[in-house]
Amino acid sequence: MKTYYHARAREYDDWWLARGLYGEKRPAGWDDERRALERWIADLPPVRTLDVACGTGFMTQHLRGEVVGLDQSDAMIEVARARLPETTFVQGDALDLPFPDASFDRVFASYFYCHLEEQDRVRFVAEARRVAPELVVVGSRLRPGEQAERWDERVLRDGSRWQVYKRVFVPEELAQELGGRVLHESRYFVMVASP
Ligand SMILES: C[S@@+](CC[C@H](N)C(=O)[O-])C[C@H]1O[C@@H](n2cnc3c(N)ncnc32)[C@H](O)[C@@H]1O
Question: Helix or strand or coil: residue 182?
Answer without folding.
Answer: strand
